[in-house]
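Board notes (copied after class):
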Amino acid sequence: MCSRRLELKKCPVCGKSFPENRQHRPKTYCSRQCAGLSTSKRYTIQCRACGKRIKVSRSRLDTRYCSSSCRYRAHRQVANWPTLNQLLDLLERATLKQIGELYGVSATTVKYWILKQGGQMPTLSEIRRSRRARVKNELAYAKSGTRIIDRRGE
């Protein structure tokens, strides 16, 4: 019986010790995974949507997002959100769906904008009440012959 003496070598990537077999070509890395990691240089970039740091290869340096969900979220975002006062004024005149269509988003997003800016979502009865009051005022002005100038939309 031949006794082979195996020397332990340290992997330069992960630091694990592994036996080196002298009969074959000398191994530098403990596994194919470590060998693959050593050959490709990785760069760290930051996701534009969530801010998470990700590692990419040189060919992927133009990557902007860490995942497809971050990319979708970033493309759905509106550049300039309306202010809380603008949203509440719009809500007196239009439905959430109509406001969403105005900005190219869903009604749920409009609700999110109101809540995100510290506003409180008015109840349906409050919205109806304010609309009724506005219509009543407009009718009163119309009957009196006074011209109504609405500057809220400017």
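Comment from the instructor: The mean pLDDT is 78. The CA atoms of residues 90 and 99 lie 7 Å apart.
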